[in-house]
Amino acid sequence: MDKRPYDNKAWLLVLPVFLIVAISAIIPLMTVVNYSVQDVLGPFQRVFVGTEWFEQVLNDDRLHGAFLRQLIFSGCVLLIQIPLGIAVALTMPVKGWQSSLCLVLVALPLLIPWNVVGTIWQLYARPDIGLAGVAVNSLGIPYNYTSSAFDAWLTVLIMDVWHWTPLVILLCYAGLRSIPEAFYQAAKIDGASAWAVFRYIQLPKMRRVLTIAILLRFMDSFMIYTEPFVLTGGGPGNATTFLSQFLAQIAVGQFDLGPAAAFSLIYFLVILLLSWIFYTYITHTDREDAR
Amino acid sequence: MSTAKGPALNPSTGRFRKRHIGLIVYFVFLLLPIYWLIAMSVRPNQEILSGFDLFPRTITFANYVTIFTDPSWYTGYLNSIQYVALNTLISLSVALPAAYAFSRYRFLGDKHMFFWLLTNRMAPPAVFLLPFFQLYSTFGLIDTHIAVALAHCLFNVPLAVWILEGFMSGVPREIDETAYIDGYSFPRFFLTIFLPLIRAGIGVTAFFCFMFSWVELLLARTLTSVDAKPIAATMTRTVSAAGMDWGLLAAAGVLTIVPGALVIWFVRNYIAKGFALGRV
After folding, report:
1. What is the ipTM of this complex?
2. I need a surface site. Which of A108, A142, A223, B248 has the fewest CB within 10 A?
3. Transmembrane stretches, by residue range (chain B) (predicted)?
4. Which residue has better confidence, A287 or B31?
């Protein structure tokens, strides 16, 4: 049972946050809603068009392609990064300077500006001057991320694994550190195998951080923009044009405000729905844990 | 704090080597691109383009000298640091009281408010690009540090509230009650007793605010043109204008990693302890 006192004066403490987020979220979102139902003909000439833009966007083949690529990409990201993150977190040293060093090194990619991540991989994967590009080609495998769609796709995926697996590692590592020593001693006395320790002690204790990791990774990979923009520019063709690239193309490139706004809203609602599912799941399991 | 070491984490069996080989392979994968960036940054351009070498033959710091002496380069760093610091300050100062309210009280619409905050963390920045530009133009804030700092609050404030709430809930409520009985006013209690108790949490939160503001480019680039232009944006423009100066590009890249590496080094103990204390 929740023992926190009920007091509406707490709103005073929340008010600053409410104001600052309202300014930076509600007002811009209203502008987007505005655009999505209007056709802007001139500075003072606007026509209400109802759901026309929504219909146009939803029937756009390029959107379907981008959406499908996005889903496959986000799926691959989760399938690779979550198990890899758990595995590395389990093997990281837990004490002394080695542990500090490992943490600092692991966290490094997270603090590199996203376009620099793109630049790093550009330098690293180019078939003429990049270490990886030259190495793969010298093994006899033709590889060129600027001309082959598959290579470009693979490079973006590996880049994302390099960039974001550290977040999963850090979260899992924190979860593992919160397990009391007594649990391991009990397991040792019972003669539990390493797998049993993982399955019945470590995994349940990591469940919460893992949920957060999956949530963050899914959302962020769903919004990926800067890194592929720098690395491949969405190409070759539109092999690496994900949803955000597509949105930027129609909003900034072609300046089609109406369709861009309509698409923004659909995009936002999809993400909202998914995060609502995750959020109810987290709070639900919290309540079960508390019981 | 208990040091967690179990059979799986501290293996003394034959599996020890195999596990650690895996770890080493991962670290090689992690560090090779960074090594390559550093190696590129100390080479003259002719050497980069003339042939492939695992190690640089001639080491030159000309690229770094260019960056440190050319104002159009180094002001980029100063701009970035300014708006990131501003954003971290704003995010922390508004998120601290709010997180306290969420962790200690129930109030009208608290759950909905919390979820609504989180949805902003989930909003794709691309959606807000155009409206932000119009909003800040209206107030004449385009190309100022405060505009970028405020725009980044969109995702940093919800995150800060989320992380801090976890840390605060780990502090027993009896401490608050005892302080109030002893006659502490709320501001005095909050500043002198409560904040020191959750300083690990504040450290971790500041780390995350710094991180997400430092690495974000889409909004930062859209809202600035000259006076507050972030270094990451300077990199994209200068390079495309002057052809491909790979060495200079790499040197600028190396220098963007440095502030991040310093910040991690300072909070490294908080990361390890801090994550486990909080619920995140």
Report:
1. 0.80
2. A142
3. 21-42, 81-102, 114-133, 145-168, 189-215, 246-267
4. B31
CB contact under 8 A, B101 and A90: no
Instruction: Say what the pLDDT of residue A41 is.
Output: 64
Give the closest of A8, A14, A88 to B98, CB-based: A14
Cβ of residue B126 closer than 8 Å to a chain A Cβ:
yes
What integer best gives the mean pLDDT of chain A?
A: 82
Lowest mean pLDDT among A11-20, A62-71, A99-108, A140-149: A140-149
* pLDDT at residue A290, rounded to an integer: 57
B46 reaches A (C-beta below 8 A)? no
**Number of domain units in chain A:** 1
The reply to whether A3 falls in a domain is no
CA distances from A35 to A52, B34, B126, B131 (A): 12, 43, 15, 10
Structure tokens at B67: 């960056």
User: What is the mean pLDDT of the segment spanning A141-147?
Assistant: 78
**Nearest chain A residue (CA) to B150:** A24
In a domain? residue A43: no
Residue of A111, A184, A268 with shortest CB distance to B123: A268
B106, β-bridge pairs: A6
Per-residue pLDDT tens digits for A207-226: 777 877 888 888 888 888 87
Query: Could you tell me where the DSSP H helices lie in chain B?
Result: 15-41, 45-50, 62-69, 71-104, 110-122, 125-138, 145-169, 173-181, 186-189, 195-197, 199-215, 218-222, 231-241, 246-277
Q: CA A161, CA A159: separation in Å to the nearest integer?
A: 5
User: How do the domains of chain B map onto residue ranges?
Assistant: 12-41, 70-277
Average pLDDT (A35-41) is 75
Any domain includes A90: yes
Cβ pair B200, B271 in contact under 8 A: no
Question: CA torsion sign, A126 to A130 to A132 to A133?
Answer: positive
pLDDT of residue B273: 58
**Superfamily of segment(s) B70-277:** MetI-like (1.10.3720.10)
- Looking up residue A238, the CATH number of its domain turns out to be 1.10.3720.10
- DSSP code, position A46: E
CA dist B213 and B230 (Å) reads 11
Distance (Å) from the alpha carbon of B49 to chain A's nearest alpha carbon: 7
CB contact under 8 A, B2 and A180: yes
Q: Considering the domain boundaries, does residue A131 fall inside one?
A: yes
Which structural domain range is residue A61 located in? 52-290
Distance between B159 CA and the closest CA of chain A, angstroms:
11
Using the predicted structure, report yes or no on whether residue A182 has a pLDDT greater than 80: yes
Low-confidence stretches of chain B (pLDDT beneath 50): 1-14, 277-280
Q: Which amino acid is at A259?
A: P
Give the pLDDT band of residue A141 (cuts 50, 70, 90): confident
Query: To 5 degrees, how large is the angle CA B20–CA B25–CA B26?
Result: 95
Picking from A95, A121, A201, the nearest residue to B33 by CB comes out as A121
- Angle, CA of B23, B24 and B29, to the nearest 5°: 100
Interface subset of A 84-113, CB within 8 angstroms of B: 84, 87-88, 90-92, 94-95, 99-100, 102-113
